[in-house]
């Protein structure tokens, strides 16, 4: 092959390599200086955690004694569905005296897939077809009541 052909093929393939580089998206809590796992039990309090980390991603459902900080890094290659590259969840539990009781760390391997029933509850009534949806209101124009304002009777009074 000549040098020009190799150069032309190289220039044509070069833009395609950009499609193979994954783009990263960060979701959830992004730590600035302090990490949630750096909180020390029996030393840090609720106010010091709030000052160092900021507000949590979420709080526990039944009480406000557990703060949860979630971070997710997703990678997407070209047009493909994004995949989770890294996930970390840190739960900070507080005791009765508002001091950190324990710091729990979870990652993507600790998660469980939740199975749910894909059943649907049927609704009453009938489903409209395409033509019924398009032409269903033809001829169904509501006539004005006798006391409504019309172009010929702007006050709406009976004459």
Structural overview:
This protein has 159 residues and is of the alpha+beta class. It has three helices and five strands. It has helices at 3-20, 46-53, 130-135, and strands at residues 23-28, 58-59, 66-76, 83-94, 100-107. Strands 1, 2, 3, 4 and 5 form a five-stranded antiparallel beta sheet that branches. Strand 4 (83-94) and strand 5 form a beta hairpin. The longest helix is centred in the first third of the chain and has 18 residues, at 3-20. The chain is flat, with a radius of gyration of 31 Å. The model has no long low-confidence stretch (mean pLDDT 80).
Summarize the SSE layout with pairings:
Blueprint: H1 3-20, E1 23-28, H2 46-53, E2 58-59, E3 66-76, E4 83-94, E5 100-107, H3 130-135
Antiparallel strand pairs: 1-3, 2-3, 3-4, 4-5
Structural class: alpha+beta
Residues in helix, %: 10-25%
Mean pLDDT: 80
Order of helices and strands: HEHEEEEH
Low-confidence segments, given as residue ranges, are none
DSSP strand count: 5
Largest sheet, described in full? Answer: 5 strands, antiparallel
**Termini distance?**
96 Å
Strand content: 15-25%
Cα-atom radius of gyration: 31 Å
């Amino acid at each position: 092959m000549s040098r020009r052909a190799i150069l032309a093929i190289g220039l044509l393939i070069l833009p395609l390599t950009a499609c193979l580089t994954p783009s990263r998206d960060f979701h959830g809590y992004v730590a600035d200086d302090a990490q949630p796992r750096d909180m020390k039990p029996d030393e840090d309090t609720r106010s010091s955690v709030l000052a160092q980390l900021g507000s949590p991603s979420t709080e526990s459902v039944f009480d406000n004694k557990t703060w949860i900080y979630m971070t997710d890094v997703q990678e997407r290659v070209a047009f493909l569905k994004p995949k989770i590259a890294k996930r970390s969840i840190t739960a900070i539990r507080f005791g009765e005296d508002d001091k950190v009781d324990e710091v729990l760390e979870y990652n993507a391997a600790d998660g469980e897939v939740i199975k749910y029933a894909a059943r649907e509850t049927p609704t009453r009534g009938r489903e409209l077809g395409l033509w019924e949806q398009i032409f269903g209101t033809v001829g169904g124009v509501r006539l004005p009541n006798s006391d409504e304002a019309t172009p010929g009777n702007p006050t709406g009074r009976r004459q």
